């Protein structure tokens, strides 16, 4: 059985992310109630419904493919393709009515992150990439920023306190002092900013597989680098840093002394 092309996977991943993301808007700024998962993180009806819609579409289009999602677990596939979905990346952001949350779709082919789509429903921004196909932002080609000096860089982080705890105050402040600007309210939107050249660095101290799967192809196809804090090219490293590529080694040097992620 022949596998779908990267272009076919990218086309459907884009449809999947857009459809799931639009479903979340039915609950955005509507004071949707939340439950607590076993790890203490919140989950809403919007998370659950959006993922259910995405899984249903996927089961009809590619019934032999594997799928893993944040809310409904993993189903093994019969072919070496796995879809990794996160219906709402940034549930706490979503619950507060802040428009920087996103819907993520990543596709692994034979274990290699091959396709990534990030859709920001409340802003209607979509960034999509496939291995060898480049990266597009709302249909237009996009690239990382050409910045070569860390002192000119904008750094974004979802949770600055988590980064500070991992690095320790002195190392965190050294990184902040070495760059031009630091901002928060990132979630996956920070990685959209890197891929589209509006920020140079995005980082998170705690990341799950479904947080990262879409990000690696997007950042790499836009010309940047995506790794764990230890510099490993992987989507299951437990943390993440993305950059425009030119500044990556300099950022990793600042992260080298980070405490182990519990």
What does this structure look like?
By secondary structure, the protein is an alpha+beta fold. The protein has two domains: 6-141, Fructose-1,6-Bisphosphatase, subunit A, domain 1 (Fructose-1,6-Bisphosphatase, Chain A, domain 1); 150-255, D-Maltodextrin-Binding Protein, domain 2, CATH 3.40.190. 32% of the residues lie in helices and 26% in strands. It has helices at residues 6-24, 45-61, 91-95, 160-167, 169-178, 189-195, 209-212, 215-221, 248-255; strands at residues 34-36, 42-44, 66-69, 73-75, 81-89, 102-109, 112-120, 125-130, 134-137, 140-141, 154-157, 181-183, 201-204, 225-227, 240-243. The strands form three sheets. It has an eight-stranded mixed beta sheet, sandwiched between helices. Strands 12-11-13-15-14 form a five-stranded mixed beta sheet, with helices on both faces. A hairpin with a 2-residue loop joins strand 6 (102-109) and strand 7. Helix 1 packs antiparallel against helix 2 and helix 4 (160-167) packs across helix 5. It starts with 5 loop residues before the first helix and ends in a 7-residue tail after the last helix.
What features would you highlight for this structure?
globular; 15 strands; single chain; 2 domains; Fructose-1,6-Bisphosphatase, Chain A, domain 1; D-Maltodextrin-Binding Protein, domain 2; five-stranded mixed sheet; 32% helix; alpha+beta
């Amino acid at each position: 059985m022949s596998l779908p092309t990267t272009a076919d996977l990218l086309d459907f991943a884009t449809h999947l992310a857009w459809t799931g993301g639009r479903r979340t808007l039915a609950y955005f700024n509507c004071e949707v109630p939340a439950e607590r998962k076993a790890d203490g993180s919140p989950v809403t009806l919007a998370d659950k419904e959006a993922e259910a819609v995405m899984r249903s579409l996927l089961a009809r289009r590619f019934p032999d493919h594997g799928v893993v999602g944040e809310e409904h677990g993993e189903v093994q596939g019969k072919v070496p393709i796995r879809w990794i979905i996160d219906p709402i990346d940034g549930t706490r952001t979503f619950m507060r009515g802040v428009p920087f949350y996103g819907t993520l779709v990543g596709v692994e082919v034979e274990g290699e992150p091959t396709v990534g789509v990030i859709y920001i429903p409340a802003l209607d921004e979509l960034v999509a990439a496939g291995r060898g196909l480049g990266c597009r932002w709302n249909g237009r080609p996009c690239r990382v920023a050409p910045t070569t000096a860390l002192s000119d860089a904008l750094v974004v982080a979802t949770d600055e306190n988590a980064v500070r705890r991992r690095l320790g105050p002195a190392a965190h402040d050294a990184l902040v002092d070495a760059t031009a600007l630091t901002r928060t309210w990132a979630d996956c939107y920070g990685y959209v900013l890197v891929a589209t050249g509006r920020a140079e660095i995005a980082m998170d101290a705690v990341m799950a597989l479904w947080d990262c799967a879409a990000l690696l192809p997007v950042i790499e196809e836009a010309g940047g680098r995506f790794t764990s804090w230890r510099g490993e090219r992987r989507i299951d490293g437990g943390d993440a840093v993305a950059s425009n590529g030119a500044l990556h080694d300099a950022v990793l040097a600042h992260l080298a002394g980070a405490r182990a992620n519990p």
